[in-house]
């Protein structure tokens, strides 16, 4: 589980060319898009979401349905994303 | 007409006539009062016929009534006293006449002067002349008060004879004396006042031979020297075929001699501050000459000092045809080729005339010192052409160092300067500069930050006059620091808003009849003044979302932690914004010891209150100072290139400055840097290979150096570079020869750390070879560079 979390974190940093951040800096349960009330989160936007979706498809062969509420849940945090990818990976 | 003459004669002779009438002709005051009544009647006729304005009419009316009153009393009471009041009335009415014009300008004497000399109205010394005329008008008023008082005294105290003598003779002599004294004073004033002569109309006798033309620390050059030297250069130029001449002289006097000789001989002048071999060769692809004062200039250059050594008695100096006098002025350029701006000399002539009108008054009695390059469109008109046309002496060499100003505190100085110089001035000076006469500071080339203006004032007791203009349009508007952000247009400019909200300028210094539209957004107020609202290209689209870069910058400043900031648009896989920030003291304190990520998050979360996260900056750099060129301009391209270099944990750029083929940066290599791996873990030193790699990385990013190298020559590593101790890296790169030289020094620049030279492999492709993650500049028109050479005073 945490191995997949790390893979996702590395993929995030690489595919979105994030600066000043290492996998260790990313909180598993903090939001990927925007930030929570504690100010935690990567603060990414919808353009990043598309980019990340493509990167995950390339890396793990897991694709996402058209954007809907369900998809948003999967992108809620690194843990949620890792769970979805693990579950759908063939 | 005849009536007027009779009236004037009777008025002047009135005291004598009355005296003679009384003493010799035995006439009674009653009989004589008929004369006064006749004069009053004539005035009355004039009064009823006149179509003058109400003020003047009321005044004349009052005079008529008083004259009639005095005349009637004298007639009916047969009283001499009232008869003798006439001269008092005349003086009082003249006092009223002159006095009123002091309130309702222009003053009477200035009106007369304008009738006599129609050129005064538009002359650069108009203000000076007007002030003088006002003083003369005031002098007349005082004289009339005095004269009226004495005349009144003779009415009551003196004998008839004394009355007649004073009013019929002495007062006229006094008036004559007043005229004579004023005439002499005026001549003296005029001789002190340097006459303004347009450059195209200068003749050898425009100024006295010995008039001080310019000076340096030890010697003075006169008008005669100038005329002789221009002749020598003209004789040389006119012996050659008619080709354009590149003019570059660091010495302002040599520059002016070369420029005037070029213009007078009908040659086109190409004025450039950049004298790098490659650039000069580029211009010389067209057939043209090169005149300079630099002994080591590229081959074929004519050294002006050599021309001036020639002995000749021939004087060739005189007017030239403005309609044929052409110039090209090269702007400072960004990193690529400087931009050529075509100019008719008449544009400059018109611009300088306008300057003289606004500043002439204040400057006529001063000397001109400059800290800016006179080959550019601010230094050229202000520090070179203006002194020539106005006959104001100037210093031949510009000041490079703020400390040099301490040598001129006893002078009456105009200091032509720039924000870059003033920024250094307020940092370098540790104590106030006490000038004997408050200096006149001018600044252009960029916006003068408020805190610098304030500190300059604290140090020199003078508020800086800022000029807003551009290479294409010349001067546009001016303002005095410390009086708000609004700019006052120069009178000769017709300003309007173009369709895109940008400023459009029509003026005698702009060639295009439709005017020149700048890239500056402005907002006008009702009084015709305006404020700058940023560059038009400062509004960009990030993934279809419009955002104003100044707005993001302003929001960041609202944190109270930011001293200076620039936000730039970037493109890699996507479009995004990036922010280069200089923290202020509060910011440095707050973030001391913080991980960079935490600082980024702080600013990002702050901005999220106001902006969508698509347009919040994605990348951040924290510097000691924003990148700027020698002129103090902050260029978007420099900042974009800064971001094109991916952030590395191994080194930090604290400051940088890029010129055409040189790059300087203040760097620091943290102890955690990978560069130290495997080299003395206990005693970390930056390895030579890391130093060379650093040089190559920066040369490729900022100077377009190629990727491959041929060889490394002469490299010396004199002193070690320690972790967390800043070092200054200077790189020069000649892209024709592929030769790169570098030097690392300590922060002060005094202690050499290492140096060397590298030969790069030149490919046939001249285009930039860079890593994919470096080529982040955009071709999207929405995101085009915010840098503009045309913008002398960039964003506020």
Descriptive account of the structure:
Chain A contains four helices and no strands. With 90 residues, chain A is mainly alpha-helical. Chain A has one domain (2-18, 30-88): Non-ribosomal Peptide Synthetase Peptidyl Carrier Protein, Chain A (Orthogonal Bundle). In chain A, helix 1 (2-15) packs across helix 4 (78-88). The mean pLDDT of chain A is 85. By secondary structure, chain B is an alpha/beta fold. Chain B has four domains: 2-192, no CATH class; 199-343, 3-Layer(aba) Sandwich (Rossmann fold), CATH 3.40.50.12780; 540-643, GMP Synthetase, Chain A, domain 3 (2-Layer Sandwich); 647-772, Hotdog Thioesterase (Thiol Ester Dehydrase, Chain A), CATH 3.10.129.10. Helices cover 39% and strands 21% of the residues of chain B. In chain B, the strands form seven sheets. Chain B has a six-stranded mixed sheet with strand order 6-5-3-4-7-8, with helices on both faces. The longest helix of chain B has 33 residues, at 160-192. Chain B is elongated and about 130 Å long. At the A-B interface, helix 2 of A face helix 19 of B.
